[in-house]
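Lecture notes, continued. The same structure-token format from the folding unit now serves as the input rather than the output. Read the line below as a description of shape only.
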């Protein structure tokens, strides 16, 4: 019995029970669809975050308080660390300490309620310098960014995001109006254009004020949440990192690098970390989705065993006419692989379509700048896994069919 005839026989057998075949492959379709959807959206999320990180420039260095986080406990501990002080900022600004630092920006953040007339809203508030606009590539659509002089004089001025403007002012003009934050009147000098989510910040829902004002009057703190440093060239990033470490260790009286109460991240390190985290997260979700494939595989095996029992006389007749055990084995294996392969292709098409729709929703409705990512590895994985499921879970029923004696099979009622 040649392969072509075996395949034709397998197809005809599946067509005889269309409803059963369709329900059997449903588990495979759901599993492959989930894998394609997760891998595609995971790749889209990774591309979005990495793209935003790259926009900040390869010369940017972030200085954060606490030790380098290695888990959730470290992340929570880092949030309460206040090791970056005014003395550190002044030291880092000195060319003698960090000669290749082009710009240094202190950063503080928190959340407070804003009031305008009878409207209230609670956005995220960032205290920064005018360098904030260049680093994150955000500039006012109306008005301006506050100046260095305004930061040094603790000015009560603010630049607001588009959502903050809509929540407090609606369609009316907000520029030069005054809002109240913690009892202080802030003049709105700039309104950011609608930008949406960028890396981990939604700039539409933010208010940017001078860091001095935020520290003194809004948050009541004497430390910084971050320093952002820009080196004068990509070639000098590494030496700038070392200069920053030496300066901060001298300030903090640290002689053992293992006891650093701060850590630095360059864009290259940030990109590497995000890539690793997103890859592991996507792999984990894919593994969870693959559980449905196992369920589908068990369903395939169950149906094939039922099919072998129902077609016992057919198996006996084929063997009596000269079909070998290998021919019977091949036929039933082909039926199983055809079922899972068909389910895999349907799952790939549905998964790709849903990924495209999800990308449109995330990109346009939520203004995330999300791009559809057609994951070739996911397609290959879907085809390989679906075919493998057919082989693995179809092997036992196929061997059961192949081992049947022709005489006993023909006597079967």
């Amino acid at each position: 019995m040649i392969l072509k005839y075996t395949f034709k026989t397998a197809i005809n057998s599946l067509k005889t029970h269309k409803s059963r075949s369709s329900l059997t492959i449903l588990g495979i379709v759901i599993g492959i669809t989930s894998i394609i959807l997760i891998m595609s959206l995971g790749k889209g999320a990774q591309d979005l975050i990495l793209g935003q990180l790259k926009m900040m420039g390869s010369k940017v260095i972030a200085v954060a308080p606490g030790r380098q986080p290695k888990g959730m406990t470290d992340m929570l501990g880092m949030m309460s660390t206040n090791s970056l002080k005014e003395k550190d900022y002044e030291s880092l600004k000195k060319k003698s300490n960090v000669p290749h630092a082009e710009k240094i920006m202190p950063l503080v953040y928190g959340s407070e309620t804003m009031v305008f007339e009878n409207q209230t809203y609670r956005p995220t508030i960032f205290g920064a310098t005018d360098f904030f606009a260049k680093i994150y590539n955000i500039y006012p659509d109306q008005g301006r960014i506050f100046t260095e002089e305004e930061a040094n004089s603790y000015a009560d001025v603010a630049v607001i995001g588009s959502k903050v403007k809509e929540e407090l002012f609606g369609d009316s003009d907000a520029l030069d109006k005054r809002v109240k934050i913690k009892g202080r009147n802030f003049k709105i000098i700039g309104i950011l254009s609608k930008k949406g989510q960028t890396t981990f910040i939604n700039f539409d829902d933010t208010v940017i004020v001078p860091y001095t004002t935020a520290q003194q009057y809004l948050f009541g703190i004497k430390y910084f949440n971050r320093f952002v440093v820009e080196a004068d060239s990509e070639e000098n990033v590494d030496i700038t990192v070392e200069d920053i470490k030496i300066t901060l260790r001298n300030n903090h009286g640290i002689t053992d690098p293992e006891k650093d109460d701060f850590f630095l991240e360059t864009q290259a390190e940030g990109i590497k970390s995000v890539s690793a985290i997103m890859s592991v997260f996507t792999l984990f979700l894919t593994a969870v989705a693959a559980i449905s494939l196992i369920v589908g595989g068990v369903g395939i095996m169950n149906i094939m065993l039922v099919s072998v029992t129902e077609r016992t006389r057919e198996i006996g007749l084929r063997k009596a006419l000269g079909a070998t055990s290998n021919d019977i084995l091949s036929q039933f294996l082909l039926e199983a692989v055809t079922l899972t392969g068909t389910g895999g292709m349907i799952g790939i098409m549905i998964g790709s379509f849903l990924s495209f729709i999800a990308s449109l929703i995330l990109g346009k409705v939520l203004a995330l700048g999300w791009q559809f990512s057609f994951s070739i590895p996911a397609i290959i994985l879907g085809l390989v896994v679906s075919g493998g499921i057919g082989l693995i879970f179809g092997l036992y029923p196929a061997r059961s069919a192949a081992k049947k004696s022709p005489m006993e099979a023909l006597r079967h009622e």
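Point for the exam: The longest helix spans residues 267-310.
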